[in-house]
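Try this one yourself first.
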């Protein structure tokens, strides 16, 4: 049975059809991939910073509902970073990126050094659809494949970066990073 889920940001409320929560307080596995249209405002009505904050809040809520402790990352200079304490007791640093539709997402290599305790969560906001969440262990970029990119831009102005290139037709290539599946290994 589908329930209505509400998320608020400032004076705006977003409504989603949600698959509900099981008795362990975890989302059903199909929850993040459902494509019921939200009832309410369009994502394009939000500024980039509002979309980023909404994405961070949604990600923090998903970790909390999975039984993990969420806390601010003490050594971070940006609010897009936070820490989680997994059910196994491991601490992870989480970096969140929110993106409309399928824009390219990147992390500067100087600020995002792959290691076992660093993960990225990318929230894809598509018009008239629920957000899609991808949880990517940073070490996956050490052997980039499919949508994962390593760009060094030798001799150019751009700084080296780890990237994620996803199109509507290649969204399925992120299946190994589906939030609800990937969270089980943390």
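Now uncover the answer:
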């Amino acid at each position: 049975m589908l329930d209505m889920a509400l998320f608020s940001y400032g004076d705006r409320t977003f409504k989603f059809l949600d698959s509900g929560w099981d008795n362990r307080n975890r989302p059903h596995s199909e929850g993040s991939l459902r494509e019921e249209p939200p009832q309410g405002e369009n994502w394009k009505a939000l500024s980039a910073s509002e979309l980023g904050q909404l994405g961070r809040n949604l990600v923090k809520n998903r970790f909390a509902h999975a039984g993990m402790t969420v806390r601010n990352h003490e050594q971070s200079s940006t609010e897009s970073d936070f820490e989680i304490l997994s059910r196994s007791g491991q601490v992870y640093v989480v970096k969140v990126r929110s993106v409309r539709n399928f824009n390219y997402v990147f992390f500067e290599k100087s600020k995002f050094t792959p290691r076992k305790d660093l993960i990225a969560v990318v929230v894809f906001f598509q018009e008239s659809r629920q957000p899609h969440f991808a949880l990517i262990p940073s070490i996956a970029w050490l052997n980039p494949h499919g949508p994962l990119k390593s760009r060094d831009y030798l001799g150019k102005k751009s700084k080296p970066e780890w990237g994620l290139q996803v199109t509507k037709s290649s969204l399925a290539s992120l299946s190994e990073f589906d939030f609800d599946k990937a969270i089980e290994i943390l």
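Discussion: The longest helix spans residues 48-65. Residues 47-185 form a domain with the Trna Endonuclease; Chain: A, domain 1 fold (CATH 3.40.1350.10).
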